[in-house]
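pls design
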């Protein structure tokens, strides 16, 4: 739905600005402003540890360890970004598993919303290598 508070109109080219502005006002000037509904309050509950083991027919395994981190509205968000960059560094012990042959790939990602972020270390490994990837991810996050 087009509303005055969320519409963007882009006009480009060699135009007659007063004429185009008059046309825009004629076409869109009658759209009444509407008030936005209130955003729901985010109420985070304590995180409970959970482990999932899923079978796969892939010739390699995947391990993911996830953490709740501060959202982009938090004063601690910059620290969460630095932590994510450190954990994702190819100079860190998580990625070091790749050149030593314990992992096929390894890294850390941060996905953020204003109220909360999700950080997760992920690695692909030869069969039976997941315990070491999980251990390195936990050690680096301390």
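designed seq:
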């Amino acid at each position: 739905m087009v509303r005055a508070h969320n519409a963007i109109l882009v006009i480009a080219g060699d135009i007659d600005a007063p004429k185009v502005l008059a046309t825009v006002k004629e076409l869109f000037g009658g759209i009444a402003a509407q008030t936005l509904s209130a955003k729901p309050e985010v109420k985070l509950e304590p995180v409970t540890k959970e482990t999932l083991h899923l079978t796969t027919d892939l010739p390699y395994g995947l391990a993911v360890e996830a953490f709740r981190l501060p959202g982009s509205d938090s004063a601690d968000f910059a620290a969460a970004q630095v932590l994510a960059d450190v954990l994702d560094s190819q100079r860190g012990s998580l990625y070091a598993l790749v050149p030593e042959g314990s992992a096929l790939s390894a890294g850390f990602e941060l996905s953020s919303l204003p109220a909360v972020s999700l950080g997760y270390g992920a690695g692909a490994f030869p069969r039976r290598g997941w315990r070491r990837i999980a251990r390195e991810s936990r050690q680096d996050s301390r």
